[in-house]
From TrEMBL:
Native source organism of the sequence: Bradyrhizobium cosmicum
Lineage, broadest ranks: Bacteria, Pseudomonadati, Pseudomonadota, Alphaproteobacteria, Hyphomicrobiales
Signal peptide: 1-26
Similarity field: Belongs to the UPF0065 (bug) family.
Protein name per Swiss-Prot or TrEMBL: Tripartite tricarboxylate transporter substrate binding protein
Origin superkingdom: Bacteria
Tagged with keyword Signal: yes
Keywords: Signal
Amino acid sequence: MDRRDLLRAVAALPLLRAALPDPAFAQTYPVRNITMIVPFPAGGQADLAARPVAMALERILGKPVIVDNRAGGGGGSVGNAAAARAEPDGYTLLMTLSSLAVLPEADRLFDRPVAYEVSQFMPIARVLADPTLLAVPASSPWKTAQEFVEDARRRRGQITYGSSGPYGTLHVAMEMFASSADIKLLHVPFRGAGPALTALLSGTVQAIAAAPGTLKPQVDDGKLRVLGNCGAQRIASFPDVPTFQELGYKDVEMYIWAGLFAQSSLPAPVATRLREAMAQVMMSPDVLKAFDTSGSLVAYQDAPAFSAFIAADSARLIAAVKKIGKVE
């Protein structure tokens, strides 16, 4: 979304607010600190999105917005569930990733109690939507994705990769690629993208699929090499990295989007206040600079467009999870 689209979105929001009941309720919000749950450790895409957004929201709303990294459960399920159970008053928000829709399906796949349902959440705004990138250590023997694939075919199940947890975004991306390339890799789950990246840098695992913002500082320092892009198009921060679709893996397409959510029963005036604030946040020079520096592109969507995007993206991801089947 360009600046003109953002300005149109901001201009339209007062009309929506006027149609909603009890505007005085929104005028009193917030009166205390707001907690923004991030269901992953520091260093991953959700955390990268949350921190500049929280700082900008704090300026706009006039109350502290505290980032709470609440990892656990694999793929972010513990933090997502905590946000789902919170009081729907606008004081507990969730900055999470596309795995939000995948994890309940994984619970059902294993006949486990479902930690939460997507229907418990109200989308407020999409912040980022980056393709996942396949990265390996700069010291590795693989200079191209094809070399990686050829080696993996020779040594089935021996090349290790890290993820943010079973059925998390990074896991699904790698299994989607492995299925398309007809290779078998060894999955090593961690509690988030940050720990998985640390494991890659230390040599504990040999590959990772992660967001551009997570990888770019390490690539710039000469520690990592990016071999492939799971998006439909090349990206400005890694213009020389081909997409997997370019390389012939036509069914590989995966994005790590980050978005802000509240509870589905949040009062409409508070939801509108948050949507208005997020429209301003996503035009903030500090936020735009933070994302640009990290190599991530702003991908703002207001609630209606974000809801439609989630529905389409979730259907594709759930189909991928069912294809992956049960994994430990």
